[in-house]
Write a structure and sequence with these properties.
- This is THNS1 protein.
- GO terms for molecular function: pyridoxal phosphate binding.
- One of its GO terms (biological process) is amino acid biosynthetic process.
- Residues 236-313 form the Threonine synthase N-terminal domain.
- 47% of the residues lie in helices and 13% in strands.
- The strands form five sheets. Strands 8-9-19-14-15-18 form a six-stranded mixed β-sheet, with helices on both faces.
- By secondary structure, the protein is an alpha/beta fold.
- It is globular and about 85 Å long.
- It has three domains: 51-218, P-loop containing nucleotide triphosphate hydrolases (Rossmann fold), CATH 3.40.50; 313-341 and 469-710, Rossmann fold; 345-454, Rossmann fold (3-Layer(aba) Sandwich).
- Strand 8 (325-329) and strand 9 (332-336) form a beta hairpin.
């Protein structure tokens, strides 16, 4: 019996991506194949001695697709039903099922699989093979399991037309749909690669997708990352030897040259049929499919990624739909992004990212995560990293820097209340831009980071949206919102929508643009600013000008930002990955306080983006108006987006407004908008007053519980001085890791 290893490449981590103390812990990465795919197929090097194992529900087309793949590879094709089970039993599979019954059939089927051995073949499993753990463990060690993921409705239609007599598990009182849904848990447990198969996709096309997916699985060299400030054309041999992968950029956060990491070959594209296959599935399932295509299994295997996603978006969110879409009025819809534990859209990334980070880092290295927040990020980071397993919390800690007087009282109370044994908040006597710039400078201060590594065995990383793992999960909810409108019958797939997002650091709106690039039919991304409207001016004129601008404190503090970090990723994209130009623009911004786009780049930008801004007065008026007419309370940031959407939409298609936070977080402003004359300064009293309105949505459960626990909680405050911040960082490292 042959036992052939399952290919899982280990990545070579360079000195640029991990402290030298960790290098000895890592193994060299196997040399990847370099031949083009046709050469692979003709020489059998795609398979070698491994098998391609096709798995999926009955009616998925495993047998037909397996024959086509086998023909293309010129290798043996084995159908478990016909070539193994019926040969072993000397009777048809349906006769065996009728003879022994459901449970005994699964056991007999598993025993037959345990005796089976093959190499260099294409194997089509039965639909029920994955339900026998020992049998699957045996066959999986000899190859790569490819899951043909076909929508349940399509499978039911196929089986009906095929007049299939035998479905294992089908019984009186148990519907076919129930059987198919029950089996999904087993398919998800065993697959290495998922191939989406729509209803009208020909078997030949599915076979090509299988071959492409196997090639991707075996060659992760294609999925590298570059800095927005690197020069890609004519890259040196030294640069090639320091290739960076998803796990590297999650750990590093910020590129050594001060740029931000982006996928070198861009994001994956989904076909219309693939997107349509996700219309009827849950948010968690959509997230799994999308992120599997964005994260190579050599970095995080599909089964582990599924486990992380289910942990992130399971019980931690108060709404079963996770990111529901609600009709507001006319052609306007709200994407509610506040059902996570800390009541803002930041939870979508920060319930997921800590687990990705913990999986990617070497087991014997300590990491301190640095975060700058204008309000919502802080509590979300603290909550997310405090939910890690105890062993991970011993080696991963987080410190959150926020403007001491630049967040709402409830936000501050929340950040103080979310502090745990590995998570702390530090107030800074300055604004958010100082906090964010200070963190970037600390990362690029090699003397300081080197000192921390040598003296304390601790490396620094980032959890702001400068980290690619923060941005990636946000793509999911923009795609999911569109699919929900299709599911609700508001639009048909392919019909365009506009998206309006309150924007400060440009991460959320960039994620929407990425969803568009991946195939979601978004027409325009509308950037909504408050009175700190540097982005609005830039989108309208192409001039990014900070000269003479001072940050204005507003009722929407999360977008009180003048330096938009993620804008750099977008400009890198529309400039055709010209890292030299991006470096020039942002060096000029840093040194001279302004830059101007070329006319051709401004033209590209204005094809994708439109922008507007909203005053505090108009923000409060919108909150009052919407509540008066609908009984729904918008938070201050959503109100900014609502005002801008009203002004800029042309009403020819639906518009999805990102509701980025729960109104409970901004109770004083909301009470003022609702024209309450006397407002108690105690945050808990403010929430109790709001709850008396019985408005939609109800008061946020997690926020209320956090404030009850906070009381007069303590936190550190420091001056706006780089040396003081670095001293705080060193002290916290000593406290937690030494």
């Amino acid at each position: 019996m042959l036992h052939i290893f399952q290919y899982q490449p280990l990545r070579l981590i360079t000195q640029n991506s991990l402290p030298s103390m960790c290098l000895k812990l890592m193994l060299s990465r196997p040399v990847a194949f370099t031949q083009i795919w046709k050469s692979w197929f003709s020489s059998h090097s795609l398979l070698g001695k491994k098998n391609i194992i096709l798995m999926g529900p009955p009616g998925a087309g495993k047998t037909t697709v397996g024959r086509i793949v086998g023909q293309k590879l010129d290798c043996p094709v084995i159908d478990i039903d016909d070539d193994v089970l019926e040969t072993t039993w000397n009777m048809s599979v349906s006769e065996k099922l009728q003879d022994v019954g459901y449970e005994e059939f699964l056991e007999e089927e598993g025993k037959a699989l345990l005796k089976f051995s093959a190499h260099g073949s294409v194997i089509s499993l039965s639909g029920s093979n994955p339900m026998h753990a020992a049998g699957m463990q045996h066959i999986k060690q000899n190859g790569i399991v490819v899951y043909l993921d076909v929508p349940t409705a399509v499978i039911m239609s196929r089986l009906k037309s095929m007049k299939t007599e035998r479905i294992v598990g089908l019984a009186p009182g148990v519907s076919l749909k129930d059987v198919l849904q029950f089996r999904k848990q087993f398919y998800k447990r065993w697959f290495d690669i998922r191939v989406l198969c729509g209803g009208d996709v020909a078997a030949e096309v599915v076979a090509e997708k299988v071959l492409d997916a196997v090639k991707r699985y075996q060659d992760s060299e294609l999925e590298t990352f570059v800095s927005t400030r690197s020069s890609r054309p004519g890259r040196s041999t030294e640069e090639d030897s320091h290739k960076l992968y998803f796990s590297d950029v999650v750990i590093q956060g910020l590129a050594p040259d001060g740029g931000l990491f982006v996928p070198e070959r861009g994001l994956p594209k989904f076909t219309a049929e693939e997107w349509q296959g996700l219309i009827d599935v849950t948010y968690v399932e959509r997230a799994q499919v999308i992120l599997e295509r964005c994260i190579h299994p050599a970095d995080i295997p599909a089964s582990k990624l599924a486990e992380i996603i289910e942990t992130a978006y399971g019980e931690n969110f108060s709404c079963s739909k996770v990111a529901p879409v609600r009709h507001l009025a006319g052609n306007q819809f709200l994407l509610e992004l506040f059902h996570g534990p800390t009541a803002s859209f930041k939870d979508f990334a920060l319930q997921l990212m800590p687990h990705l980070f913990a999986y990617c880092i070497p087991r014997s290295c300590n990491y301190l995560i640095l975060v700058a927040t204008s309000g919502d990020t802080g509590s979300a980071v603290l909550d997310g990293f405090s939910r890690l397993h105890d062993t991970d919390k011993q080696r991963i800690a987080v410190v959150n820097f926020f403007p001491e007087d630049g967040v709402s009282p409830i936000q501050k109370s929340q950040m103080i209340g979310c502090q745990k044994e590995n998570a702390w908040s530090v107030g800074v006597k300055s604004d958010f831009d100082f906090c964010q710039t200070a963190i970037k400078q600390i990362f690029t201060n090699s003397d300081f980071t080197g000192f921390l590594t040598v003296e304390y065995g601790t490396a620094l990383s980032a959890a702001n949206s400068i980290n690619w793992a923060r941005l990636l999960p946000q793509i999911v909810y923009h795609a999911s919102a569109y699919l929900d409108l299709v599911h609700q019958g508001i639009i048909s797939f392919g019909s365009p929508v506009d998206i309006c997002i309150p924007t400060g650091n440009f991460g959320n709106i960039l994620a929407a643009f990425y969803a568009k690039m991946m195939g979601i039919p978004i027409r325009k991304c509308i950037c909504a600013s408050n009175e700190n409207n540097v982005l609005t001016d830039f989108i309208r004129t192409g001039v990014y000008d900070l000269r003479g601008r001072k940050l204005i404190s507003s009722f929407s503090p999360a977008v009180d930002i003048l330096k938009s970090s993620n804008l750099e990723r977008y400009l890198h994209l529309i400039a055709n990955e010209d890292g030299q130009l991006v470096t020039q623009l942002f060096n000029q911004l840093e040194n001279q306080g302004h830059f101007q786009l070329r006319k051709d780049l401004l033209g590209k930008l204005q094809q994708d983006l439109v922008a507007g801004w909203c005053s505090d007065e108009d923000c409060l008026a919108a909150i009052h108006s919407v509540y008066s007419t609908t009984g729904y309370i918008l938070d201050t940031h959503t109100a900014v987006a609502k005002v801008v959407a009203d002004r800029l939409q042309d009403r020819t298609c639906p518009i999805i407004i990102s509701s980025t936070a729960h109104y409970s977080k901004f109770a004083p402003a909301i009470l003022r908008a609702l024209r309450i004359a006397e407002i108690n300064q105690n945050p808990l009293s403010q929430l109790h007053l709001l709850s008396s309105y019985s408005a939609l949505p109800p008061i946020h459960w997690g926020l209320l519980e956090t404030l009850k626990k906070t009381g007069n909680g303590d936190h550190q405050v420091c001056a706006a001085d780089m040396s003081v911040l670095m001293s705080h960082i060193e002290t916290l490292i000593q406290k937690h890791f030494m």
